[in-house]
Structure prediction request, 141 residues.
Amino acid sequence: MPTIFNGADSFHQLAVFLGRAEGTSSAMVGFQLANTLSENGAVSRGLCDVAADGALRGVTEQTGILPAEVGEGKPFAGTAIVSMNCWGFSPEIFAKLDERFSRLPRSGTRGNTGEGGILSSRSGFGPHRLRGDRREGASDL
Prediction:
């Protein structure tokens, strides 16, 4: 059985949010960086850019974060909000994903993550594209 690091409260928070949400909604549970470190070495975390109203503006992957680098007067604030990839989406996402996947080329790809694949930075579909679409005013996922 896989280990779940996010904890039951993370899933409860997502359920509460999505239970109150209307229309197309999404959420990410954020964690304080200091609470996500490992005594066994460096970690990689998604450092979140969060607006004053709590809206997520972006996530930047940071690799090699050591516990000694986190805290007051250090490169990383212990209170910095990070992503542990605990996301929740309203059911409307499935129709939108289906529509976007259907627009992908069906030939000439090299698997699902390589060059030209569906998750490739060269493909037309990936997290970087979703964020870009949103900034340009296209429909939200």
